[in-house]
Amino acid sequence: MTAASDTIILVWAIAALLLIFSLLAAPAAAKNTHNHAAAMGVLLLGGAAVYDMDIINMPEIAGALVIGGAAGMMLAREWPAAALPILMTTLLGMASGAEVCSAIAIWLNPYAFGLVAEGSQDVIAYDKLMILFALMTAGMACILALILGIRRNGGGSGMLCLAIGMVGWSASGLALLLQNAGLLMAGGLSGAAGFGIALRIFRGARPKRLADMGRRP
Amino acid sequence: MSPVFLSLFLLASMIGAACAWRVPSDRIPDFLAVLLLASSACIVGALTIAAETASAAARYLGLAALIIASASFCGNVVITRRAKKSQSSAPRP
């Protein structure tokens, strides 16, 4: 095991711990600490991914990150406060759309990720299954987000949690294809937690709607 | 699937399910905000794919995925802050 991979494993572990802390602290925290911890965990995972790779097209990637980040920040800043749940649904749909694009890109070029056996032209059956799984779950999350957006019913519903869970499972499928343990942990955490909350809501728990976040009982 | 990856996945799923089970019903919106942030970890996959693919079509798809995922992550960070701020500034009855 090289020094680089030791560093990456350490960063993955820290990121996973930060995400677990944010999920554990979310119910009790009065401040914004848990949100910062979750954002820091995702950023650490991104940093580890950049550190791990031999990036050829760095300018394009930096440009894409800046353009996307600026668009997302502008959208979130200018969006009216009363319609925040719709924006959350939209951003979830965007995340699932990104996963659909990622799964199609892996399907188009499986050689780059070592998904083709030596001396063969076809993708390994297990990896093919994983690509289909990631594509299907991300597509279903995208459709759910679209339905919620059309119905203008983004807040507090079980369907939103179900879509979050599907995005998480899809991220896990991609992580298994890319051999990225940090993404696997993040996807497993958000997938299982999203499905757990959806199950609770469908079984009859009645949470406050996201639109009512500002109101206190 | 290697046993290490399988065990990591199962561990993460169990922790996630346990967290979801113990959250009180009135704190579910806060929990959802964190889940939205965690689910935007797909930016890592998009980053890897955009960097490592060789064919032009796959690279442009990876870059499109990276733009969308980056917008989703940054948007989620801003709206969780906004939601928390509006929650804390709401007057208590």
Spell out the blueprint of helices and strands.
The complex is a heterodimer of chains A (217) and B (93).
Chain A: H1 3-25, H2 33-52, H3 58-78, H4 84-108, H5 125-151, H6 158-178, H7 181-202
Helix pairs in contact in A: 1-2, 1-7, 4-5, 4-6, 5-6, 6-7
Chain B: H1 3-22, H2 28-39, H3 42-52, H4 56-89
Helix pairs in contact in B: 2-4, 3-4
Summarize the structure.
The complex is a heterodimer of chains A (217) and B (93). Chain A has helices at 3-25, 33-52, 58-78, 84-108, 125-151, 158-178, 181-202.
Describe the protein's architecture and organization.
The complex is a heterodimer of chains A (217) and B (93). Chain A has 217 residues and is mainly α. Chain A has seven helices and no strands. In chain A, α1 packs antiparallel against α2, α1 (3-25) packs parallel to α7 and α5 packs antiparallel against α6 (158-178). The longest helix of chain A is centred in the middle third of the chain and has 27 residues, at 125-151. Chain B has 93 residues and is mainly α. Chain B is 83% helix and 0% strand. Chain B contains four helices and no strands. Chain B has helices at 3-22, 28-39, 42-52, 56-89. At the A-B interface, α1, α2, α3, α4 and α6 of A face α1, α2, α3 and α4 of B.
